Amino acid sequence: MNSRISMVLAGLLLVGALIAGYWGLVLSRPPAPNAAPAPEPVISVEKTVAVVEDQTRQPVVVLVHAVPPFVPLTAADVAVEKLRTVPVGSLTSLDQAIGRTPLRALGAGTWLNDESFTPGGPLARMIRANERALAVAVDEVIGAGGQLSPGDYVDILLFLRQDNANAEQSAQVVIPAIRLLSVGDQLGLANDGQPAVPPPATAEERAQAAQRRTAARSVVLAVPEPLLSRLMLASQAGMLRLAVRSADEQLLSRYWAGESDMPDKVQSANRDLYQFTQLALTGPPKKIAPVVADTGQRRGVEVIRGAAAQQTP
């Protein structure tokens, strides 16, 4: 019995010695360096801004290169770009453009809408049904010092010099409130409120366009159809001036647009004319035969008979 107890105690002491030795070995080792924390993912500010901006932009179909008229568009002609400001009525997917046929030449970078596939050039898309686009020659004086811009409204004045046809010189308003469609090669807005042609993209192109506008030698006016003849006569009868009207005036855009009040405005413009009735489209005045004073002298009458002629008293 005693021997068994001694053996058990000896085993326990052996196990305790082993545990104590292992623990001492562990404590005697130098502490392991702390593991570095896993690096956090780095998100660039540029990438974040690009993602946010991409969510605020909308797709617009644009032309990759210039296309001729009457040729159906293919997938190689168009691309989708995302714009922050989307033009009204623009196409938003390639399926809306591929296979359609433009009826006029379109330049590279043009954003497409339904009007891109309708007939008519830029001027035809800038005037109303009752208007006609008519070009008038200008210089720095006639054109308000070269400061005219498409979209301005002007009064057309006529200056008549004193001559045999005019008893005295006069100045009068031939047609009021006429809209400028273009100045030189610079066009204004189409009927849908969008630029008739794509605006200059760079600062250099804008500067060149401003120089060409200042040096323009012709402007195109949106003339009501009943007044075309008047403007043609005025341009040949005397010297024209374009007087710019204030941008603060109201309803200028509808001045000649109403069908019901058009005759009244034409008649009002006729009443304002001075010493030039031809412009009122009323026809030339009747000529009155001049009165010859009787001097009491009788003139001979030449009587022709056959091949001979004789003078009778």
TrEMBL record:
Domain SAF residues, every copy: 58-118
Name of this protein: Flp pilus assembly protein CpaB
Organism annotation: Pseudomonas haemolytica
InterPro entries cross-referenced by the UniProt entry: Pilus_assmbl_Flp-typ_CpaB (IPR017592), RcpC_dom (IPR031571), SAF (IPR013974)
Superkingdom, taxonomy of origin: Bacteria
